[in-house]
Specification:
The chain has 114 residues and is an all-beta fold. It is built from no helices and eleven strands. The protein is globular. The N and C termini lie far apart (33 Å). The mean pLDDT is 97.
């Protein structure tokens, strides 16, 4: 049974930091490219950051570069999104995703309100 479970969201003030976590199960996490997305009310889904399966490379959207950091711990089947200097426009539902050679998965999301 494949699961991606996000946590760490909540209410923050401008300038605060939050760290989101996404715990994976049911698939070989260490072989999957992981990403974070978000969707604010009334807006399109926005890609934020991605990380290679081995953690060797990361990519960021311009809107979060320098403020957000994606990382992973393959021993814990977990991907993280460290969010610093939060702004009101960061308010959204945040999702983690997994992409393999043949399959992709999405979590249910965690709400961040700034």
């Amino acid at each position: 049974h494949v699961q991606l479970v996000e946590s760490g969201g909540g209410l923050a003030h401008p300038g605060d930091s939050l760290r989101l976590s996404c715990v994976a199960s049911g698939f070989p996490f260490e072989k999957y490219y992981m990403s974070w997305y978000r969707q604010a009310p009334g807006q399109h889904l926005q890609w934020l950051a991605s990380i290679y399966a081995d953690g060797s490379r990361t990519y960021y959207a311009d809107s979060v570069k320098g403020r957000f950091t994606i990382s992973r711990d393959n021993a814990k089947n977990t991907v993280y999104l460290q969010m610093n200097s939060l702004k009101s426009e960061d308010t959204a539902l945040y999702y983690c995703t997994a992409r393999g050679d043949s399959y992709g998965y999405w979590g249910q999301g965690t709400q961040v309100t700034v």
